[in-house]
């Protein structure tokens, strides 16, 4: 096999001829190793995975601060709507604010969690994964709403001129 032949890109290549050496793909029958640079932006999601903004939302403006007519912050209702859209479970529109997002409760899996983070970034301009290393903000709907609001306030700056 010559070093100039490209990777086959199929699982069958591994099954046909072995593991290859070091995972490098140099031709037919060798294992293929795909790499993605962590320095660049994430690839765009396919259209069928993208959540369209709710009516009247441009997707770029931050959520208005303050409570909704029911006394809860507007962002809680919006996050519930995002969760319902991502999971296809309309019952999440009534999820308690303290309901855990992972495990019991909302029961997000890794894909739905990733879609939630991407939609939060798109809609509110907050990159939860970059700003919250331990992802404590994902404990519940309420902690995520609080985190988004605190990040938005931090970007705007302290209201009373305090150092922040």
The CATH superfamily of the largest domain is known as: ACP-like
Compute the CA-based radius of gyration.
22 Å
Q: Quick check: average pLDDT? A: 72
Number of separate strands: 0
Shape: globular
Beta-strand residue fraction = under 5%
Distance between the termini: 61 Å
CATH topological fold name of the largest domain = Non-ribosomal Peptide Synthetase Peptidyl Carrier Protein, Chain A
Relative helix content: 25-40%
Give me the strand/helix succession: HHHHH
Query: Segments where pLDDT lies below 50 for 5+ residues?
Result: 1-25, 54-66, 160-164
What number of domains? 2
Query: Which class do the helix and strand fractions yield?
Result: mainly alpha
Tell me about the biggest sheet? none
- CATH domain class name of the largest domain: Mainly Alpha
CATH architectural type of the largest domain: Orthogonal Bundle
The number of helical elements comes to 5
Structure commentary:
- It is built from 5 helices and no strands.
- The chain has 164 residues and is mainly alpha-helical.
- The chain folds into 2 domains: 1-35, no CATH class; 47-156, ACP-like (Non-ribosomal Peptide Synthetase Peptidyl Carrier Protein, Chain A).
- Helix 2 packs across helix 3 (110-124).
- The chain is globular, with a radius of gyration of 22 Å.
- The termini are far apart.
- The relative contact order is 0.11.
Structural features:
Non-ribosomal Peptide Synthetase Peptidyl Carrier Protein, Chain A, 34% helix, disordered N terminus, mainly alpha, 5 helices, single chain
Provide a brief overview of the structure.
By secondary structure, the chain is an all-alpha fold. The protein has 5 helices and no strands.
């Amino acid at each position: 096999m010559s070093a100039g032949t490209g990777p086959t890109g199929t699982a069958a290549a591994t099954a046909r001829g072995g593991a290859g050496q070091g995972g490098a793909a140099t031709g037919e029958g060798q294992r293929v190793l795909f790499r993605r640079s962590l320095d660049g932006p994430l690839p765009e999601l396919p259209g069928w995975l993208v959540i369209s903004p709710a009516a009247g939302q441009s997707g770029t403006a931050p959520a208005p601060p303050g409570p909704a007519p029911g006394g809860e912050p507007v962002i809680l209702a919006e996050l519930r709507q995002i969760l319902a859209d991502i999971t296809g479970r309309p019952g999440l529109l009534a999820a308690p604010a303290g309901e855990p997002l992972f495990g019991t409760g909302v029961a997000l899996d890794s894909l739905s969690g990733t879609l939630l983070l991407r939609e939060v970034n798109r809609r509110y301009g907050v990159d939860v994964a970059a700003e919250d290393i331990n992802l404590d903000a994902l404990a519940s709907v309420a902690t995520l709403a609080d985190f988004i609001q605190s990040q938005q306030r931090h970007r705007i700056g302290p209201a009373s001129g305090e150092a922040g």
